[in-house]
Structure formats: C-alpha cells, structure tokens
Write a sequence for this structure.
C-alpha cells in the first residue's frame, strides 16, 4: 500500500508544480470542448479523495474554507474561483495525501487507493490538455 501512497503524493506534488505558475484566469478558463477548468478538476480530485478516505472512517471530514459542493460529480463551474480558494485547494490536495498515510488500513484499502490513482490520472490528463491549449 505504501507504493500507492507514494504515487499519490508524487502525483499531487507534480500537479502543484505544473499549475503553480498559472494565473487565476488560466486556472478558471473553460476551453472549447470542455465542461470544466483546471481548478475544478483539482477541487474535484480533492472531494473524491476525501469521500473515499472518510466514508468508512470514524473521523470527521475536514471543513474547508471553500464550498466543496461546487466540485462534485456532474457539476460545472458557475463562478470564478478566487486566488485564496485556489491556494487552499492546492494545499488541501497535499494535506489529504499526507492524511491518507496516517489512516487505518480498514479505512483506506489498496483497492480504494488504486481506484483513486486511476480516477486522478484521468483528471491529470484533462488538466494537461487544458494547459497545452493555454500555450497554443
């Protein structure tokens, strides 16, 4: 299971590195042919991972200073995510990866982590496609 946690941590660190220099406007831009933007994908990854982590946990889900419902399944961005929220989402992604490491195995199984890595890989690909469109 440690290899999956290491991959999750590395993937999220890489995502933060790839998006760090983007502006708020770039992170909020929904390109033609897409329904969501970069920051929505990042927020969605956070929400799904927390759903997986806390679903079977006796611990309470963290309370974020931003509305997590806006990153749920089948939700489209309806407002601009501000710089402060962008920073909070980026930090929460890294923090959640560390939280997984301390979670009991009954809460976070190998199968759940495999699904999470697969799910996040789809969003990493989408984010990379959007970034490519930004540089055209």
């Amino acid at each position: 299971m440690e290899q999956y946690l290491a991959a999750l941590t590395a993937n999220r660190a890489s995502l933060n590195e790839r998006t760090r220099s983007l502006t708020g406007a770039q992170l909020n831009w929904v390109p033609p042919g897409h329904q969501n933007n970069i920051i929505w994908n990042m927020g969605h990854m956070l929400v799904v991972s927390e759903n997986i982590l806390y679903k079977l946990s006796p611990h309470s889900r963290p309370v974020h200073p931003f509305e997590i419902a806006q990153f749920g399944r089948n939700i489209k961005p309806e407002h601009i995510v501000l710089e402060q929220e962008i920073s909070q989402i980026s930090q929460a992604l890294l923090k959640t990866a560390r939280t997984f490491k301390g979670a009991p195995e009954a809460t976070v199984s190998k199968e759940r982590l495999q699904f999470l890595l697969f799910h996040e890989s789809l969003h990493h690909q989408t984010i990379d496609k959007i970034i490519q469109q930004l540089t055209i």
Summary: The chain has one domain: 2-134.
